[in-house]
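User: Here's a chain of 456 residues. Predict its fold as tokens.
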Amino acid sequence: MVCDAQDEGDLVRASLLNMTTIAAIATPAGRGGLGVIRISGPDAHVISQHLCGRQQPWPLRKAQFTRFLDTEGKTIDEGLVLYFKAPRSYTGEDVVELQAHGSPVLLNALLQRVLVLGAKLASPGEFTRRAVKNGKMNLEQAEAIAACIDAVTLRAARQAERHLQGEFGQQISFLMDKVTGLLAHVEACLDFPEEDVPPLLFDQLREQMNRDVLEPIENSLATAMFGERLFQGVTAAIVGAPNVGKSSLLNRLSGRERAIVSDVPGTTRDTLEVDFEVQGIPVRLVDTAGMRNSGDAIEQEGVRRARDAASMADVTIFVADVSQKKTWKAEGQTDIMVMNKCDLLEDCSTISNEFIPVSAHHGVGMNVLLEQLAQHLDVVPAGEEDILVTRERHRQLLVQARMHVLQGCSLLGEAAQLDLVALEWRQGWSALGEILGIGDVEHILDRIFSEFCIGK
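Assistant: Prediction complete.
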């Protein structure tokens, strides 16, 4: 039975007084076989009951077939309802998921009905934000959800999943515990200034901080660039003189006949982009116009854009034609030098070592070129990587933590500077805590009181 106007009015008024129940379409825009609307908050259950004309409670975690009704009791659509009671839900609140047909018209009508019944439209990321607030995950895991969604290679997706499972967060928590334990010794010395502090203690603290905190941070930072590139990707520009085989190389590397290949110089007049991957790193390959002086205004513009693309690219691949010596000299700084059309030579060993001999037409030398590109991108061999730092925010915070910890270590040695050591190490702890969304220094004080019984 559908709720009457007074019941609906009470729901709306309650929602206006306390806008805590949110709703949104959880599936991508466009048509599909299935569309999902998620509702989260204290009114999620009662809203879904009114929506479906149901009086008895929904069973927990069991899909129920039902009809979704409008204000007049007419069917908007039919589908499934899933009810997750707090705190055993994604957000830690009461959550109801409505599974309907994936028609944008029907989903929007259904969402509008849910909003009329008292929910408010969720802002971007609000469901996950509530999950963090309610202790269902830490901030780093929340970021991993976005990474899982945005991953464009399987290797990136697997790294994101490891973050989501909390492996990286556990490493950070371990480092924070180590800093806390060592800081507790410094705080104890400050609280008992009348006691003589043996110099050996300073050496032990410094050694433990180096071994247990600084070395793991350094190891993480060593692969941070690769970890970030897994998700951000890189741009590689193919440059060189006209008709040296740049477009053929782009087609060969991408595995698609994306660029027009012709013997006529100047065929490529604008930049052409295609995506592929190198050992899990997304690479946007840019084919550019041949570098030469031309009286053609359109080709001149193409050359200008080629130079711009080369200057902005993460990697520049210079291509020369083995049969045209005038094409062997690169314009500006290049990262990888390729000598194309090596199939025209009987012996490729005569080619200068600065060039990688390839034949884009026949596919010769592609593996060597890809290995060189992977080396230039500092790719960590598959299966050998640990939990990688995959976000710039995490890298910057690790750098901050390292700086403060190192500064604190440099101040060890004079008892009068112990207060500065404590300050630096607290700031290092806070930088690590920001990765997980923790910033309460009281945590350290709690650890100190529990371990050293200060004040007894």
